[in-house]
Every structure is written in structure tokens, then in C-alpha cells.
Amino acid sequence: MSIQAQSETIGDDSSTIGSGVGTMERELSAMGFDPSCPTPTTFQLRAALPKQGRGQAIMAATDRMWVNLKVYASGGENELHAHMNEDHVFIILQGAAIFRAPDGGTTRLTRNHGLMLPRGTTYSFTADEAEPLVLLRVGAVVDPEKSAWSRTDASGKPLAGNAVENKAVPTVFYTDRFYE
């Protein structure tokens, strides 16, 4: 079975922040993802916008690739980190983001600009405008024998996406504002 477009946008609350289980892992498991039954997947880009924190809406996935919308409240950010077993791409759909390298260098990206991040690239980013940031994120596992979800901080220590150290805060969504 492939995952059909998900209309609900998910985030973290006080029970999931620091749990060590990421949002993607939690949702794929809850949705009953079965990589042994591949079928084409259609989806529509739609996600609730956050007032606070960050969230995502999983669009589609296989056992080696996933597509999701990432949404960040104005000013949302994360810490320097790297995905050691995943190549991924960000495409800005709404707002702007400032991506940072470990040496302090920055790149500001706006609507319809993208960034390819090969596995092991250390980076962070911040939402840069008064409106929520919406990113299309496509990721692919490099070595299927290893976890696709492993991420490390700038010193090489494990860093979960929803860790307090990664600036995770409880997500609060607008009830009437969506990216679509």
C-alpha cells in the first residue's frame, strides 16, 4: 500500500518532544505503511499553518523515499544537524528561509528556490519572514540496511528532530489557515 495524501498536519506536543521517536517515524507507523505492496500515489499539497512550532504533512512514501510538506511558524528554526543516511531536497513554497553552514555562512532562499543536501551535510535554517514558512521536502535513504532517521548535531552526537536541544516547542496550528 502506498500512503495517500494526508489532510491532517502533525506536530509535537509535550509528550513527544524529546521522546526519541520522530514525527515521520510515528506517522508512517500509525498509517500502516507497508513497503512490500508498492502502488502509485497521488497527493495534493495541503498543510495546516502553525502559529507556534513546526509540523509536517506526509504526502507520499516508499521504503526508500518520502515527500512531505514542512511548516514552520514565523521565526521557526532548528539547530545545526546532519542526516547521515539520507539525501534530501528542500523547495521553498511560501515564505523565506535562511540556511546556515557550520562556518557561519548563510544562504537566503525564497519562493520556488531549492537546496539539495547530500547525506552528511551539516546545516540549520530559520524561517525569515512574517508569514509561516512552507517547504516541500523530498528525502531518500542511502543505505537501506541503516536507519533513515539518524541525525547528528554539529559535534556528531545523535540529535532527534523533536529534541528540546533542536529547539522543538509544542506545535499550535491555526484552525483556519492552510497552505494549499
Describe the protein in words:
The chain has 180 residues and is mainly beta. It has one helix at 23-30; strands at 10-11, 47-52, 54-61, 65-72, 81-83, 86-94, 96-100, 106-110, 114-117, 124-127, 133-141, 151-153, 172-179. A hairpin with a 3-residue loop joins β3 (54-61) and β4 (65-72). The model is unreliable at 1-5 (pLDDT under 50).
CATH fold group: Jelly Rolls
> What distance separates the N and C termini?
25 Å
Beta content comes to 35-45%
CATH class: Mainly Beta
Give the helix tally.
1
Shape: globular
Give a quick precis of the structure.
With 180 residues, this protein is mostly beta strands. It has one helix spanning 23-30, and strands spanning 10-11, 47-52, 54-61, 65-72, 81-83, 86-94, 96-100, 106-110, 114-117, 124-127, 133-141, 151-153, 172-179.
Give a topology summary.
Layout: E1 10-11, H1 23-30, E2 47-52, E3 54-61, E4 65-72, E5 81-83, E6 86-94, E7 96-100, E8 106-110, E9 114-117, E10 124-127, E11 133-141, E12 151-153, E13 172-179
Antiparallel strand pairs: 1-3, 2-13, 3-4, 4-11, 5-12, 6-9, 6-11, 7-8, 7-10
Features:
six-stranded antiparallel beta sheet; three-stranded antiparallel beta sheet; disordered N terminus; Jelly Rolls; mainly beta
